[in-house]
Amino acid sequence: MEDEDDEWVSSMLLHQEKVKVQERDEELKELKKELETTKSQLNKYIKEQENYIAKNTSLQFKLADTEQVLEQTQKDKEEAKDQVKKVNNKMDELVTNTVEKRKSDIDLGDTCLLETLSQQLQQAKDQIKEQETEIRELNAMLTEAGETFQQTDTEIKQLKEVINDDEEKLKQQQTLISELQTALEESTNAVTTAEERLIKKDEQIIKLESENSELEGIDNVPSSQGNLCPPLSMRHSSQEFIINRPLHNSSRVLQVVLTPLQNKLTAHHTKTSLLRLRNSPIAESRRSRQIVKKTVNDRIVKDKENVKLVKRKLGDRSRDRLNTSKRRRVSNSVKQKLARLSGKHSEKLKNQKNCCLFLEETLKQKDEEITGWKNKFAREEDESFKREHALINGYKAEISNLKTQIHQLKAERKLMSPMKNSPSKKCKEVLSPSKCLRETESPRKTRIDSPVRRLRSNANNCGSEEKNHHFKENLSRQIKDLQAEFMKNSSVTAELESALHIARLTSEDLESRLEAEQKHKQEAVTKLEELTTKMRELEDTKSQLEKEVEKRKKSDEQVEKLKLELKELDDIHNSFKELQDNFGELEKKMATKVEENLTATRESNCRRSNRISSERYWRLEREKNEAYSKIQDLQDNNDRLEREKDECVQSITLLQQSVSCLTVLEDKVNKLEQDVLDAYAVNKDLEETKTKLELNLEHGRQEIKEKSERTNSIEKYVQQLKEELSGKGIEITNLTEKLEEMETVNFGLREMVNQTTNQIQEKDTEIKEIVVESLQSCDSPSSDSLTNIRKKMRDLKQECEKIKTESENKSQEIEHLKKELENLKIQTWKMEMK
């Protein structure tokens, strides 16, 4: 009874294990479905993240033009980063939740090994796909690099054209400066000639005063009328001689007159100036006049007969003196105005000369800077061209290597696909000789020798399982190492992408700075052109002022005549207004009379429809005609007066316009002086900004050099990593081959397990047959046979227990591998999200 119970227990356990295996297969299918759903979700999230990254990059490139927009974009970036972090946190939480759920739902099973190995193969395939995508991205990067290289070439050509234009403009400015210098020399010559003319006029005035003093002395001599009144011919000759005679004291008079104007109308005279005043011809003329008066008084007392003649001559001389005093006043006012104008013009000329010199120096400095910039640009162009050419060649070589690797992998896959089914057939062929032995041998030998051989086969299977276990451990270790290296490579690639992004931003900043410097240069050139135009305008205004001074003298005479005419016209206009008032009163009276007559006619027409007041009608017509004739005469007079008035008003407006033009010109001159000073200050500010920009450029160049060195080191490191990846790709291919071999081995192991189950069933049947035969052969079974049967049963139970322990160990290993794979998936997903 014990034997029957033992047999029943062993068959039930096998059936339970089969049921568990089926349940595990179903659970694994469900887990696969869940994995596919999670992968699809992950792909969606990755696509969304890529969209976010693309948006961020587009915003960065667009909002790098102005600093205000940069601040706004930085805020947007921070917000987007916060959102991405939130999404990442949510994703992490979801992943952790899914992992916990999976851990709670996963059960042990033998078939999990195959599924894990298939998943690893899928991961290897996915890695190959990722490498293909990376190759595509590298191709896109190469195309972008070519486009950027073409853009830089076009920009360099544009800069060269701008530099040539600037050189042509500088040449034009130099020619304009030379023309301005010639014009300044001409203006200085004109000013010197005007000063010489003023000196000659002063000399002539002094000569006239000396002649008057001489004439007074001659007239006071006691002589006849002929001696007192010289002839007209002598007078004219003496005047001509005086005009043509030079005097050397005029410079002293000018110095004395100009000192108070230069010191803002405050007479700060020194001892030398007072001595000059005492020794001046004006003081001499006063002394001579005093002497003449004394002599005249003495002679009047002595000679009473010549009193009338002396009175006449004194009257003539007083008139001459009045005229001379007026002339002196006019000459003094003219001198003062000319002195003021000459002072202003001299100051303006000095300022203009200083500005011209300053502008010439700045132009020379800018020319030197432009040449330096040209040389630097040429060097940088050569260096950039060499670097880009080297990068392009490196990328091309890498792409060619990757393409060859891809072709090799594809060829190996094609070769491995027909080999998958061959190992299973070999395993079947290996297992088939046992059946042949059973058929050839006798039934008794099989019953006796079959347990020993089966035990040996089980031992061999255990040894093969241990080897498979070690092989799986080695595979798991290698996969872990490869995944760690993959993580490192992905982190390095992310750092390289960030470094490239930073380098692009710095290059854009430098380009914006260069554009700003070009704008400053253009503004300086425009200001120089404006200054040159202002210099020309100043020269034109100077010539116009000289002409207008002459016109003003003539216009003063015309103004006096026009004033007299205006007085007459005012009288005429007043009379015309009186006539207009009278005419208005007459019109009102006529209108009242006409209304009265109309009312009377209407009444008369109403009363006497057939009678007509002919007399009144003719009288009204006569009065009307007379009024029209008077109106026409008044209108003619009014038109004549209006014409005369318009002519006078036009002449007055012309004079006022000339006066206003003079005032406007003075205002313009003052404004131009202020503009010149402002331009000088602006040039100083430009120099300061230029120095600052040069310092910033030097710092930027240093940064660019450092970044270029970093990029070179990074590129070298990338090449090393790519070489390592290429080596690891070969290792991956070897591992894939090993995994396929493991699949075939596992398939053979499954068949072996099925065969062992069949063998166990056969053993049960054989045991039952042996028991039946022993019972039939011996009615009373011996104790030895029973002990042998019990030992066999115990051996069978031990074999079943060993199989169970082995299956449990395999299930534990499968769970361990599943956990490791999930952790690796989580890590890869996080890296992709980053």
Automatic annotation (TrEMBL):
Q: Which residues form a coiled coil?
A: 14-211, 363-412, 507-738, 786-834
SUPFAM superfamilies associated with the record:
Tropomyosin (SSF57997)
Which organism is this entry from? Mytilus edulis
What name does this protein carry?
A: Uncharacterized protein
Q: Which UniProt keywords apply?
A: Coiled coil
